[in-house]
Amino acid sequence: MAIETFRWATQRGETPDIQYRVRESRFGDGYRQVVGDGPNNKEDSYPVTITGGKARAKDVMDFFDRHAGAKAFLWTTPLGELGLFTCKDPKPTPLGGDQFKVAATFERAFHP
């Protein structure tokens, strides 16, 4: 089965969480040695918001349900980098009338 692409426009402006996993050894004379922890040591996640009508919110939630928090999908970051991501915390919120807001966090995933 092909990898799906998250195709809905998101409201951007939220600050991503970017961290680099490292291993560090400290020595008695103040010297320390630091190396990256594995080949994919960059961990990044992006808070996103999608707003629109009830049908759009349902389409977005159906997409998340198909991936069930574990199956990765393609998404382009605000800096324009295409990558694999997962989403395990979508939150649909009614705004009144037919309008909904779906807030979620996309976390970087990697091929095994």
UniProtKB/TrEMBL annotation:
Q: Which domain of life is it from?
A: Bacteria
Q: Which Pfam families match?
A: Phage_min_tail
Recorded hits in InterPro entries, A to Z, give: Phage_lambda_TipM (IPR010265)
| Protein name (Swiss-Prot/TrEMBL) | Phage tail protein
